[in-house]
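Just wondering, does anyone understand these tokens?
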Amino acid sequence: RPRRRRDSQRNIRATGRVPRRWEPIDALEIDEPEQLLGKCWKFKLKITKAAIKIRAQSCYVSYLFPNESGDLERYTTDVCETATMTPSFEYEMVHTIPCVSQGFLDFVRAARELWPSRCTLVVRSGERAWAQPS
């Protein structure tokens, strides 16, 4: 009976976590998200490290988030070039929406939590590289 080759891409898809933290800057006290309409929204996103189940030769985190004009922009951490299972990024980015729109509120609601949608952990190990949604 021939041995099945393991599908490494499938096995790697659920191999890591990217803890992140949002810190408010000039936070407004609100009861409902709609109270933010027309106001400035400013938070700092921190990504300190990731935890993956393989030893990566290099990796980085990339995500899409609205910029100040409301267009989605790709943000990327520096590449961690250390061969490790716990890559360190020490990434901080202040995100500012000068005038919150209904589109931004819809974006945040669609994300189901305050985290950039379509976040990807990109890992390289040996000759293989892959991207994992986080």
